[in-house]
UniProtKB/TrEMBL annotation:
The name this protein goes by in its record: Calmodulin
Single GO MF annotation: calcium ion binding
InterPro entries named among the record's database cross-references: CALM/Myosin/TropC-like, EF-hand-dom_pair, EF_Hand_1_Ca_BS, EF_hand_dom
Gene: CAL
Species of origin: Sporothrix globosa
Top-level taxon: Eukaryota
GO cellular component: myosin II complex
Annotated ranges, domain EF-hand: 17-45
Keywords: Calcium, Repeat
Length: 45
């Protein structure tokens, strides 16, 4: 999951996060620090 994909989902749910907020959300679970959320990281959410 990229910040762009996360932003799309959040906006579809009526939220309007900034790019910085999206990056912070990804950073919280991005264990390998590659800038995206892969499936094992997604499962920890």
């Amino acid at each position: 999951i990229t910040t762009k994909e996360l932003g799309t989902v959040m906006r579809s749910l009526g939220q309007n996060p900034s790019e910085s907020e999206l990056q912070d959300m990804i950073n919280e679970v991005d264990a390998d620090n590659n800038g995206t959320i892969d499936f094992p990281e997604f499962l920890t959410m």
